[in-house]
């Protein structure tokens, strides 16, 4: 109960707690019960007593019996009239305030109102029933008699008018001022103190509905005040309402008094106006004033029967036109009032809270004579109404005992209960110890007719039924989707998953067909059944459920259907409601299907090309069954397809530039200076950028692993794909046909066509003057350099047709061209082109192997064309590692072949690639082949980064955890930053060192950069050489050989390498070709056991012969050189060019001879 409600109950309710009782066997106060609301609150039975004598009498009778015979505590509330009682029993918080009763509570503390004149307030009753259907009171019928209300006139006044002038004031026409002046027989309204009547604002004159009806019936607008939509009575002095008959002369008005808040005031307003009666209508300020005013003033007054108030005036009713039911209930009160049923009204919840109390009120019936008798005794006695009602109860036990309910006569909602056994029973053959008690949840109250009469028993709910509430008259069927397999249940059980129930009142559920399931419990139809998670329904709407396993690449939640996959919406088949996106099948990222064949799933070549989701969804406008390409005249930018536009012009210009560059390669790649073990700055820069390009190609190959690289990595690999002639990512696709095979064939022909172009240019230059002609050896060297640069690219391109990966639907596509199915006609054409290119790759590898194998022999025979043509293979490496070009070439095919092996098994593929990269890393560390230490270090660092990139591929599986993914991202970013720093530092130092030499002429910093540290001066080296050579010469041969034999193998190798450097770079002429220097070192080692004291070397090229004889004395450090030169006329221009290439121009050679 709220604070305001408690305040009202404290103010309006008087608890009945008197010390005396009426009956000797009455229950003591401590045993009296209280009502208990379902919310747990306890309170007394509330009796609302209307403020008139008959109501007080009958209410006191009921209160005494409820307390002393039924055993309930009782609280009283008092109000002026029936409207207040209706509001109180509805639970209104302010029932005394007719304007704002505040009827918004969900509990009432008043339950009974007797002597209720509900018939007088039909509109109020109907309004309360419609506005508050759960709280409005109910009418239990007549008290046992009818009442009547009307205008009454005291008999002395009636007789005075009749005998004085023959005026009949017992009839309404006698008051018509048109013919009579009845005011002469009544007191003036001015003689009545205003304090004894209520202000109009406190009465029903403020009821807008009453006053609006008054205007509609009478048309008297002057009698009301209208404010907006609200109507109120117009009282000139705020206390009396004046009828039109005396509105102009108030002293001619007859006073009329009513009580309460204006009992039946609407009828007397209409009567006075319609029948031209001069009336001043007022409401007594209190019940006492209402009783005294008619006795103290000559007036008309409202009265009813039964009531003893004005009996001493011997009042007579003023007669009006006969009662007309239609007019009366239409609001027209100008006719006589009807005989009014006097009813018993109870709250709606009394039957639940105290059914025996309601049964008592239901049986409560008393005759009007008994009521009048008690009222007369009360008026003539000083003991009061409680004492007089008690006397009547003691004298009329037979009457009131018939009102009390039988202990075993249960009412609906209740059942027989055995107090001893504390169980509900089904008969009353032994009535002792039995009483009625509300049926508990899980049961219902069933009617029982026996020899005694009618009663009710509690029966358990059968299977398929339940009852959550107590005091129920029936059990409720289990609705669709529910069942109950037990008796006496409070609730029904929902059908579990994989079950449904489409009928009511069932004891079990039905299983879904074909091992299907439901999305939730409580399914109501077999249409709610759907496939299990990981399956999809492939049936048509007309077919039964057909569940198939979900293909790889498709996410199939529970209830997956092919139609919901196509529509993108999952709906409940039985209810048609949207189940939400969680129940819609969806393609996983990296997979694609068409709308025409939604269950034929294709795996996309790159995950970012297929975002997944609905069928036919490709990223960035890509097309094809595997989102393998852009539409015609579009190119892929890494994020979306864009119109080619000016890309064609750009690439046409670029191709023209490439062709021009190829035409200059023979001129650029063979400089005039000789080759030695000492590297120049230009040479170092060339090696650095060549090595970076080679590693970039390797990164591009790693990017072709069938691994789900993160999106950020994929964007990086897109840029490196340019080095593999990726026609899509580079935009070259804009120059070719849209289909895959022409694009692939074009990529296979790129390098062969470039080589053919160089041969064509060579042939064309032979038609030009001699100084513009290409030499054959330069051309072959340039072609070898180009092929060597593109060898990894060609190896990768040749393997493309063999790199087939499998789709979930059983078919397979080319990894590079996902829209091309393997074993299709287009694929067969690509295989032919790939085989031809691979044959070319193997041929070039075989040629390079042959050149590396035959270089010593060719150097011995002096085949200059052979040596100069093979310069690309050896010039970058140390003199004793001339062969390293061949293993370096093998790296490209080895990585490409790995791409073919286990394309559908990324981890196997990744492992093999890692093995290849580690093999070449180890080989580079062992060989240390590059002339420049800085390049060797850069090579090892690049190889190590490639190995780490391959390792990170193991962290890019679809099942990777978030921690693994974050680790891989951070590691990749670190590697990229490190590689970028290495490239930046190497390139910057190379360029800055070169500029420093151009500007200052010094190469100290250059040497430090290339050699990764301090370099001794020539004088320091010569001094140390002489010191060591002196010690060697001073040591006896046997002792020296013994000490050398005690050294480890690695040290012996280092000593031989130093001897090679001294022998080749210090004691050969600068005109001698570097390749020959290398071969001299090799040949010298092979004949070391013979320990020759002299050696002779010859160079032959055409008809020109140069012979050099070197004699070395073991006892001295001096060197004697004899040069014999025999010249013969050159046989051709080519022979002259070769001589110039080997030895330099003739003038330079003569100068060398003279110096020697």
TrEMBL record:
This is Tyrosine-protein kinase ephrin type A/B receptor-like domain-containing protein. Residues 1-19 form the signal peptide. Residues 481-529 form the Tyrosine-protein kinase ephrin type A/B receptor-like domain. Residues 1089-1113 are annotated as: Disordered. The chain crosses the membrane at residues 649-670, 682-703, 749-768, 828-853, 882-902, 908-930, 937-955, 975-999. Keywords: Membrane, Signal, Transmembrane, Transmembrane helix. It holds the Pfam family Ephrin_rec_like. Residues 1098-1108 have a biased composition (Basic and acidic residues). It comes from the Eukaryota. It comes from Durusdinium trenchii.
């Amino acid at each position: 109960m709220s604070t305001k409600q408690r305040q009202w109950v404290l103010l309006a309710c008087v608890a009945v707690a008197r010390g005396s009782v009426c009956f000797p066997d009455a229950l003591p106060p401590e045993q009296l019960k209280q009502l208990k609301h379902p919310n747990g609150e306890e309170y007394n039975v509330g009796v609302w007593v209307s403020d008139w004598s008959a109501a007080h009498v009958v209410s006191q009778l009921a209160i005494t019996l409820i307390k002393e015979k039924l055993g309930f505590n009782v609280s009283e509330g008092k109000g002026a009239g029936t409207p207040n009682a209706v509001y109180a029993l509805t639970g209104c918080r302010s029932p005394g305030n007719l304007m704002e009763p505040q009827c918004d509570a969900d509990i009432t503390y008043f339950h009974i109102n007797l002597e209720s004149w509900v018939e007088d307030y039909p509109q109020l009753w109907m309004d309360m029933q419609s506005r508050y259907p759960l709280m409005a009171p109910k009418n239990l019928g007549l008290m046992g008699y009818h009442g009547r209300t009307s205008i009454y006139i005291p008999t002395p006044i009636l007789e005075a008018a009749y005998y004085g002038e023959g005026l009949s004031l017992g009839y309404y026409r006698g008051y018509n001022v048109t013919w009579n002046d009845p005011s002469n027989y009544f007191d003036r309204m001015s003689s009545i103190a205003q304090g004894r009547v209520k202000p109009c604002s406190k009465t029903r004159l403020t009821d807008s509905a009453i006053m609006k009806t008054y205007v509609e019936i009478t048309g008297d607008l002057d009698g009301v005040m209208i404010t907006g939509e609200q109507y109120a009575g117009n009282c000139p002095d705020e206390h009396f309402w004046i009828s039109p008959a005396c509105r102009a002369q108030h002293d001619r008005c007859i006073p009329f008094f009513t009580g309460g808040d204006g009992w039946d005031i609407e009828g007397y307003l209409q009567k006075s106006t319609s029948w031209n009666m001069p009336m001043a209508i007022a409401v007594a300020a209190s019940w006492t004033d209402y009783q005294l005013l008619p006795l103290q003033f000559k007036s008309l007054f409202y009265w009813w029967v039964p009531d003893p108030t004005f009996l001493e005036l011997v009042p007579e009713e003023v007669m009006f036109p006969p009662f007309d039911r239609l007019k009366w209930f239409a609001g027209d009160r100008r006719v006589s009032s009807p005989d009014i049923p006097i009813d018993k009204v109870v709250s709606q919840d009394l039957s639940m809270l105290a059914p025996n109390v309601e049964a008592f009120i239901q049986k409560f019936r008393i005759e009007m004579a008994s009521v009048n008798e008690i009222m007369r005794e009360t008026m003539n006695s000083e003991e009061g109404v409680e004492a007089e009602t008690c006397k009547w109860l003691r004298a009329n036990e037979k009457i009131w005992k018939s009102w009390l309910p039988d202990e075993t006569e249960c009412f609906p909602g209740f059942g027989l209960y055995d107090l001893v056994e504390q169980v509900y029973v089904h008969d009353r053959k032994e009535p002792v110890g039995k009483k009625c008690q509300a049926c508990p949840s899980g049961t219902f109250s069933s009617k029982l007719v026996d020899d005694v009469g009618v009663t009710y028993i509690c029966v358990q709910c059968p299977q398929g039924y339940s009852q959550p509430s107590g005091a129920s008259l029936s059990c409720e069927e289990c609705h669709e989707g529910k069942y109950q397999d037990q008796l006496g249940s409070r609730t029904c059980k929902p059908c579990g998953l994989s079950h449904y129930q489409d009928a009511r009142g069932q004891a079990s559920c039905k299983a879904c067909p074909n091992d299907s399931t439901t999305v939730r419990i409580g399914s109501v139809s077999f249409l709610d059944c759907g496939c299990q998670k990981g399956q999809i329904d492939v049936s048509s709407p007309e077919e039964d459920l057909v569940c198939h396993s979900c293909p790889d690449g498709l996410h199939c939640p529970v209830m997956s259907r092919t139609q919901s996959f196509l529509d993108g919406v999952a709906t409940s088949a039985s209810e048609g409601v949207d189940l939400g996106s969680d129940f819609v099948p969806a393609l996983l990222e990296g997979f694609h299907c068409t709308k025409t064949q939604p269950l034929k799933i294709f795996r996309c070549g790159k995950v970012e090309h297929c975002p997944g989701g609905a069928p036919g969804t490709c990223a960035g406008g890509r097309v094809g069954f595997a989102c393998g390409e852009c539409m015609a005249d579009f190119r892929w930018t890494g994020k979306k397809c864009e119109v080619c536009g000016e890309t064609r012009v750009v690439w046409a210009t670029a191709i023209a530039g490439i062709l021009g560059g190829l035409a200059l390669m023979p001129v650029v790649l063979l400089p005039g200076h000789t080759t030695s073990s000492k590297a120049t700055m230009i040479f170092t820069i060339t090696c650095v950028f060549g090595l970076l390009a080679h590693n970039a190609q390797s990164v591009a190959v790693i990017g072709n692993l069938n691994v789900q690289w993160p999106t950020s990595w994929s964007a990086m690999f897109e840029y490196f794909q340019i080095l593999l002639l990726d026609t899509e990512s580079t935009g070259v696709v804009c120059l070719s046909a849209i289909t895959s095979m022409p694009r692939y064939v074009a990529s296979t022909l790129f390098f062969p066509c470039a080589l053919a172009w160089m041969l064509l240019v060579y042939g064309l230059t032979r038609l030009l003057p001699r100084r513009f002609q290409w030499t054959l050896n330069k051309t072959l060297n340039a072609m070898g350099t180009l092929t060597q640069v593109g060898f990894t690219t060609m190896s990768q391109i040749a393997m493309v047709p063999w790199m087939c990966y499998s789709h979930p639907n059983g078919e397979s596509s080319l990894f590079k061209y996902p829209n091309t199915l393997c074993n299709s006609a287009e694929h067969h054409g690509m295989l032919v082109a790939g085989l031809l290119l691979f044959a070319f790759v193997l041929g070039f590898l075989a040629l390079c192997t042959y050149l590396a194998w035959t270089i010593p022999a060719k150097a011995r025979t002096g085949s200059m064309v052979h040596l100069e043509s093979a310069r690309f293979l050896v010039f970058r490496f140390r003199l004793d590692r001339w062969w390293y070009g061949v293993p370096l070439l093998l790296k490209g095919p080895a990585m490409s072949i790995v791409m073919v092996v286990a394309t559908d098994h990324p981890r196997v593929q990744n492992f093999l690639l890692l093995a290849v990269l580690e093999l070449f890393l180890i080989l580079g560390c062992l060989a240390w082949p590059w002339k420049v230490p800085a390049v060797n270090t850069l090579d090892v660092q690049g190889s190590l980064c490639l190995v780490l990139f391959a390792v990170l591929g193991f962290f890019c599986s679809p099942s990777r955890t978030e921690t693994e993914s974050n680790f891989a991202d951070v590691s990749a970013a670190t590697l990229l930053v490190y590689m970028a720093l290495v490239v930046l530092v190497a390139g910057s130092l190379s360029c800055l060192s070169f500029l420093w030499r151009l500007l200052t002429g010094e190469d100290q910093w250059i040497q430090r950069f290339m050699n990764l540290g301090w370099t001794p001066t020539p004088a320091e080296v010569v001094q140390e050489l002489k010191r060591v050579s002196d010690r060697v010469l001073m040591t006896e041969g046997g002792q020296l050989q013994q000490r050398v034999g005690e050294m480890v193998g690695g040290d012996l190798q280092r000593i031989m390498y130093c001897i090679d450097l001294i022998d080749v770079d210090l004691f050969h002429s600068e005109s001698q070709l570097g390749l020959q220097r290398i071969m001299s070192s090799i040949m010298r080692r092979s004949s070391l056991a013979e320990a020759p004291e002299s050696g002779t070397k010859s160079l032959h090229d055409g008809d020109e012969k140069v012979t050099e004889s070197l004699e070395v004395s073991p006892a001295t450090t001096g060197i004697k050189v004899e040069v014999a030169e025999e010249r013969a006329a050159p046989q051709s221009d080519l022979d002259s060019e070769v001589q110039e290439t080997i030895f330099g121009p003739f003038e330079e050679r003569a100068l060398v001879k003279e110096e020697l």
